[in-house]
């Protein structure tokens, strides 16, 4: 599986954020998207996820599932955790599993893996920032998709959480997955750097 962007131009609110951007990512590879605030890292992830339309250029996936679109083969985890505060931890995960569809793993097992098995019935609104992030990460495990698009994924994670997440990313890559992550700090795994805009 090979993902390639060619000559991508991104316009937001009538203003060009970047243009002529080329990138590649392959199965088993992590790409760390870096650049100053506002350079367009989140926008690039959203373009790949199909949540924004490029003003120019192409994004093509070779060797993926030909019955599915690129967005259907991606997990997009934004930097804000998309959780419903009144729903419990388990209900939030079930919501996402239903919404995303496709092949599923055991949700209780995913919650145990991310260290939330003691909090399954707690409303998400009561979770700490790190716990909310862990719940978002459980989505990656419950619904299997080969391409993980992660926006500042280690934000709010403590040292043990970062270790746990590093292990999950390595397992995903070992299974032939792909990771593209916007980050201001170390991702915690071997990765190739894609810099957008000037030096931060
Ligand atoms: N909905 C929007 N309408 C207009 N402009 C937007 C919109 N969303 C983002 N932008 C602008 O697009 C540019 C790129 O934003 P983006 O969030 O992709 O940057 P980023 O590199 O992820 O930044 P950061 O490091 O601060 O997270 C910014 O100048 C931002 O103000």
Quickly describe the structure.
The protein is built from five helices and eight strands; from the N terminus they run E-E-E-H-E-E-H-H-H-E-H-E-E.
Explain how this protein is built:
Belongs to the ABC transporter superfamily. This is Heme ABC exporter ATP-binding protein CcmA. One of its GO terms (molecular function) is transmembrane transporter activity. Its EC number is 3.6.3.41. The protein is an alpha/beta fold and 200 residues long. It is built from five helices and eight strands. It has helices spanning 41-48, 89-100, 107-113, 129-142, 159-174, and strands at residues 2-12, 15-26, 30-34, 56-62, 74-77, 147-151, 178-182, 192-195. The strands form two sheets. Strands 5-6-7-3-8 form a five-stranded parallel β-sheet, with helices on both faces. Strand 6, helix 5 and strand 7 (178-182) form a beta-alpha-beta unit. Helix 2 packs parallel to helix 4 (129-142). The two termini are 31 Å apart. The relative contact order is 0.22. The model has no long low-confidence stretch (mean pLDDT 95). Adenosine-5'-triphosphate binds next to helix 1. Adenosine-5'-triphosphate binds at residues 12-13, 17, 35, 37-43, 182.
Entry keywords:
three-stranded antiparallel sheet; binds adenosine-5'-triphosphate; 200 residues; 26% strand; five-stranded parallel sheet
């Amino acid at each position: 599986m090979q993902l390639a962007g060619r000559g991508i131009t991104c316009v937001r609110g009538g203003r060009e954020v970047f243009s002529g951007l080329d990138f590649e990512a392959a199965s088993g590879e992590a790409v760390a998207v870096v650049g100053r605030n506002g350079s367009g890292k989140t926008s690039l992830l959203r373009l790949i996820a199909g949540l924004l339309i490029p003003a120019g250029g192409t994004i093509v996936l070779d060797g993926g599932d030909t019955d599915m679109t690129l967005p259907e083969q991606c997990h997009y985890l934004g930097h804000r955790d998309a959780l419903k505060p009144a729903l419990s931890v388990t209900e939030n995960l079930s919501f996402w599993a239903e919404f995303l569809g496709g092949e599923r793993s055991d949700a209780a097992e995913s919650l145990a893996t991310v260290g939330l098995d003691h909090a399954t019935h707690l409303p998400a609104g009561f979770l700490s920032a790190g716990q909310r992030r862990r719940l978002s990460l459980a989505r990656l495990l419950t619904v299997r998709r080969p391409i993980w698009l992660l926006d500042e994924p280690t934000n709010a994670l403590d040292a043990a959480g970062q270790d746990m997440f590093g292990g999950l990313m390595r397992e995903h890559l070992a299974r032939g997955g792909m990771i593209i992550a916007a980050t201001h700090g170390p991702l915690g795994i071997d990765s190739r750097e894609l810099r957008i805009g000037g030096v931060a």
